[in-house]
Amino acid sequence: MRWPTGRAQDRRGITLTLTALALCALLLPLTATPPSAAAASGPQGPALHKASVNPAPAVLPSLREWQGGQGHWRLSDNSRIVVSRAETAELTETARTFAADLSALSGQNIQVAAGSARPGDVVLTARTNDRGLGAEGYRLTSASTLRIEADTPTGVFYGTQTVQQILKSDPGRSRVAKGAARDWPRIGQRAQMLDVGRKFYPVSYLKTQIRQMAWQKLNTFHLHLTDWRGFRIQTQKFPGLAAEESYSAADLRELQDYARRYHVEIIPEVDLPGHATPITAYDPSLRFSCESMDKAQWPGGETGGWTLDITKEHTRRFVHELLEEIIPMFDSPTFHVGGDEIGYDDAKNACPELVAYQKERGFAYAGDVFVDFLNTLNRQVRRHGKTTEAWEWWNVYGQKSSIAPDKNIVIDTWVSDDPSALANQGYRVVATPEQRLYVSPGFGRKRGDYGYVDVRSVYEDYTFPMPDNVSGYKVARWSDKAEEQSPEWFDFFARRPLQVLAERTWGGPRSATVWEFFARADAIGGPSPDEPPALPKSRMRVTSVDSEETTAEPGAAANALDDNPYTHWHSAYSPAPVAPPHEITVDTGGPERISGFRYLPRQDGGSNGGVRDYEFSVSDDGRTWRTVANGTFTGDQTEKAVTFTATTARHVRFRALSATNDGPFASVAELTVLRAPSVTGEPAAS
Fold this sequence. Notes:
It is built from 16 helices and 26 strands. By secondary structure, the protein is of the alpha/beta class. The chain is globular. The chain starts with 17 loop residues before the first helix and ends in an 11-residue tail after the last strand.
């Protein structure tokens, strides 16, 4: 990773009968409805024609265009996933994946069938006359059948994800509002990078990431597979090179097959020639002799062996043979070769063997040696029929070179918020702006820190510039200085940035604020059928609180229900602290099936008020309470989720019995109540 350096669409009114909508949906001009999370059933906004017309369903990312109908299509025991016989070869895998996921979500046994559809079925087709959808767009028509059409299986797949989100948001997991949607992405590559070189993540975890990415229509998973803590790819030619925690060829095959089912591309990265500590430990003869290039200022480089000595023919042969084995392991048409965090020019010029090699080859600068090496790797990758990708590095912080990387190399640019500079030079670019999309919780765990994404600013203010040659945007998740933390710990810091990336790069209408967007996201939940979505806080109100600090800080209890992690409720301490227990009671707005809650500690770096021991109770009338959960939280800032046997109640009470620092305070950034599916499969009362 790049460490902090200090340098751094006309709307036309159409009145339709329900039958006409079903027959003509493909010809209608669709209209976007701005998303909002004010109701669990979907976004609020101006009615398209009259109050009874269905608003756009609340999904993530939001639908680009929507034309509302009246009533609902319903999933039933007799519903099938139907594909025409002419498309079985093309769509069977997508249909089977959809059927399995839909069965798990709904609790019904959904079958795949070939032939003609009947009312209540879901129809999938990759034959459409709508050429404006592109490779990933789709049309969704909800009438007597639910029809998803696209120009490609990927477009069809994304339509299935939208349907699953709509169904999961419905308490009975059975209804889709009638109407028609037309949906497509603004930006092609929508990616996350995960640093598995510094921290190993098991295949099971990588699969959960792939599933979550597909749910949010993110399509590229960049795996940073090598770094100073481990070379994570097992090879036959170089036994002993891979770390104990690493991926076998069988692991990588399993992972890529899973990713293909969910239309996610895995781009592998072998970082060269820097970050090479495991390689030089395997073969010390690959090291530089000079200390200035052998050691590095980045963690893992202090003891030497950081950069491969590419002035040696032995090193170049080793790298060539290593990549000859690894490149064919991956299906992606792109192979990433790293190229970052090589010593700056002062370190290069202080290395006698590097300077001698530079002069011998007739290069003007020592930096030319590394640009030439990158171009050598590019030729090797291209012989395998693939495209090379690399980090921007040769030109940053004043480094000099008289030659440039080949223009057919894709460059990950990270220095600037605007990727135009390299794009204007003719490079195809993936933008990973360091100050916007780096998730590095080992450095930053609150707003203003390096590596902490300010989600409000990125969602509401950042334009995501798309000059010619920019392929997409990527959230980069680095593991530096937190390598021993759990995958779940890292997930906490990446969850919201990835949601923001998914929404903004798809390009549909945004919620008015990022906090409304998060309410929408939480009301949908994730792809796991066992992960309950959240009740909308817009319906809730605080009915009582033992105390709140509103004099010395804005610690009002209402902050616990505003979906804004930058605010919090804090128990009173003016003029003196109130002793625990501290409690907050909430009216959810009506009887609800509740199966859990989430507690988010304060996120401003403050130490007071973290809840250790807790009790959670529910009530029908706000007077008679029954405890449904109690326990002890860990003392970090990550959100804590608690589930319990589903129960129906209107009121909830959260009691903080003690604090993580043994102080007299309590604080809550967000209290989120989780909804269970209805018992009968019918929508809950609202």
